[in-house]
Amino acid sequence: MNKDDRSPSDLDLLRQEVLSGPPEAALPSLLPDHWLDQIAHDLEMSIGDGAGTADTQTSYAVAPLVLIIHLLCGKADCSHQEISVMQMLEYFRCYEIEIALEMLNRRTNLKAESATLETIFSDRTVMIAEKHLEAFRSRGHLNLMN
User: Fold this and answer.
1) Which of helix, strand or coil describes residue 110?
2) Of the candidates 121, 124, 144, 122, which has an alpha carbon nearest to the alpha carbon of residue 133?
3) How far apart (Å, rounded) are the C-alpha atoms in residues 55 and 6?
4) Which one-letter DSSP state was computed for residue 27?
5) What is the pLDDT of residue 11?
6) Residues 37, 113, 111, 100, CA torsion sign
7) Would you say 114 and 120 are in contact if contact means Cβ atoms under 8 Å apart?
8) What angle do the packed helices 54-75 and 33-47 form, to 10 degrees?
9) Under a CB-based contact definition with an 8 Å cutoff, are residues 63 and 39 in contact?
């Protein structure tokens, strides 16, 4: 299957598997692999280079949008929030970066510090290290600070 042939996320399944949990469940580091891949695809098709028509973009944008809102509700009272379209676009871009960082964590020998509910959507500094170096440091075999 061509990646562009994949359908947008199944919102009922997303609600059952992720949105029924606490806001932290929408953090990229806590998403199951299949949701991480699907949301990365949805983001690519809605705001990335794969974006097509306005209708297609909207269809693919819904799942990332509800995950972003789920996270925002965990950060602040959601009974009434006003978010500008430009701010929402910035949240999409931040979420896209966090998804990519988590894919890096799971699929390479690099380890990036994962976002928490407190740090997601903030202008945070991300620490990145090679996993095998991290393991040596934790066992006391490598000290790069001296």
Assistant:
1) strand
2) 144
3) 15
4) S
5) 96
6) positive
7) no
8) 130
9) yes
Rounded Cα gap, residues 24 and 67, in angstroms: 10
In the block, tokens 């407190």 appear at 118
pLDDT of the residue at 114: 96
Do 117 and 24 form a contact (C-beta atoms < 8 A)?
yes
CA–chain centroid gap for 129, Å, is 19
The answer to whether the beta carbons of residues 103 and 36 sit under 8 Å apart is yes
* Residue 122 structure tokens: 């903030």
Q: What is the mean pLDDT of each run of 10 residues along the chain (146 residues)?
A: 72 97 98 97 87 75 96 88 92 96 95 96 92 59 43
**In this structure, what token pair is assigned to residue 82?**
């006003």
What is the C-alpha separation between 146 and 106, in angstroms, rounded? 30
Note the pLDDT of residue 52: 66
What SS3 state is found at 79? coil
DSSP helix/strand/coil, 111? strand
> Could you give the CA distance from residue 61 to residue 106 in angstroms, rounded to a whole number?
24
